[in-house]
Amino acid sequence: MATCPTQEITDEVVFDYWQNKASEKGIDRTATIRDHHYHRLEIATIKRYLRSTDNCLDIGCGNGIATIDYAESVDSIIGADYSPGMIEAAQQRLPHKPQSCSELSFQVADARDLPFEDEQFSRVIMERCLINIPDRDQQVQAALEAARTLKSGELFLLAEVTLQGHEKVNKHRLMHGLEKLKVHWHNTYVDEPAFVDAVSERLELVETIRFGMYGFISKVLHPLMVAPQEPSFDAKINEVAAEMALKMPDFDGCSHQVLFVFRKK
Ligand SMILES: C[S@@+](CC[C@H](N)C(=O)[O-])C[C@H]1O[C@@H](n2cnc3c(N)ncnc32)[C@H](O)[C@@H]1O
C-alpha cells in the first residue's frame, strides 16, 4: 500500500486527495479503489440486500461506479459525495440509468451534514467513506447522520476497512513469512468494538460479513506465489478469489474490509 509518512492527515489533505483522484481518473473504475475484483465482490454482496422498491442513498459515492450498478436493483437512488470533481464524473453516468430505475441523481454533500430529510430512504449504503474522515468521533457522527436519513427498521449497509481486519491480514502474512502491510496514508481505519458501541443507540448490528476468502488469497497466497515480484490487482487469481468469496465469503476473518449490516432502531 502507498505510504506518505511525512504528511499529517487532516480533512483538507484527504479532500484534496479525492479531488486530485477525480481529475486524474475521471470515470475510470480505479479512481476509488485499485482492487477492482474486491470492489465487484463488495458491490455484489451489498446488492443482495437491495429490493426493487427501495429508495436508496449511496454516501461517498465517488465517481458513481457502484451507484449505477445499484440502480439496477432499486427504484431510485441518489449518490452523494463531498468532492465536486467526483460528482462531476458520476454525472457522466446519468445517460446510462437502467430503465427499471425511476430516478438516479448525484449531488455534492458531506456525510457529516447531509441535505436530506429524516427517514427519507429505505436503504443507505456507504462504502469506504468513513475511513476518509480522520477523526473517529466524526466517523460516528457521519454514521448517525446516515441513520437519521433512514426509515426505522430499514438497513444501513456499511463497508469499511477496520483496524481489526488489518491486524488479522497482517497476522496471516507474518505467519507465512510476508511483511506486514501498512495503513494507507490518508486512511483512519474504523475501530470495530468502539464504533459499534458508539452507534448502538440508533443502529443495531444484525450481520457482519468478512471477506476473508478473498483477503487470504489476494493478500497472502497470491503474494507468496509471485514473490519477490509485487502481486497485481488485475491477476486472474484475484478474479477467481472474488468468485469463490461470493459462495464462501470468509476465511478466519482475514480481510481488511468488513460489511456491517445495521438495522435502524
Ligand atoms: C474509497 S472512495 C469510495 C467511493 C465509492 N463508494 C466506491 O465504492 O467506488 C471514498 C469516497 O468517499 C468520499 N468522501 C470522503 N469523505 C467524505 C465525506 N465526509 N462526505 C462525503 N464523501 C466523502 C471521497 O470523495 C471518495 O469519493
Predict the CATH topology of the domain at 11-161 and 187-210 and 256-264.
Rossmann fold
CATH superfamily of the domain at 11-161 and 187-210 and 256-264: Vaccinia Virus protein VP39
> From the coordinates shown, what is the CATH architecture of the domain at 11-161 and 187-210 and 256-264?
3-Layer(aba) Sandwich
Name the ligand types.
S-adenosylmethionine
Helical residue percent band: 25-40%
Entry keywords:
265 residues, alpha/beta, globular, binds S-adenosylmethionine
Secondary structure elements and their pairing?
Blueprint: H1 11-25, H2 36-47, E1 55-59, H3 65-70, E2 76-81, H4 84-91, E3 103-108, E4 121-127, H5 136-148, E5 150-161, H6 163-175, H7 192-198, E6 203-210, H8 212-226, H9 236-247, E7 257-264
Parallel strand pairs: 1-2, 1-4, 2-3, 4-5
Antiparallel strand pairs: 5-7, 6-7
Helix pairs in contact: 1-4, 2-9, 8-9
The structure holds S-adenosylmethionine.
What features would you describe in this structure?
The structure is a single chain. The longest helix is centred in the first third of the chain and has 15 residues, at 11-25. This protein starts with 10 loop residues before the first helix and ends with a strand. 38% of the residues lie in helices and 20% in strands. It has a seven-stranded mixed β-sheet with strand order 3-2-1-4-5-7-6. It is of the alpha/beta class and 265 residues long. It has a domain at 11-161 and 187-210 and 256-264: Vaccinia Virus protein VP39 (Rossmann fold). It binds S-adenosylmethionine.
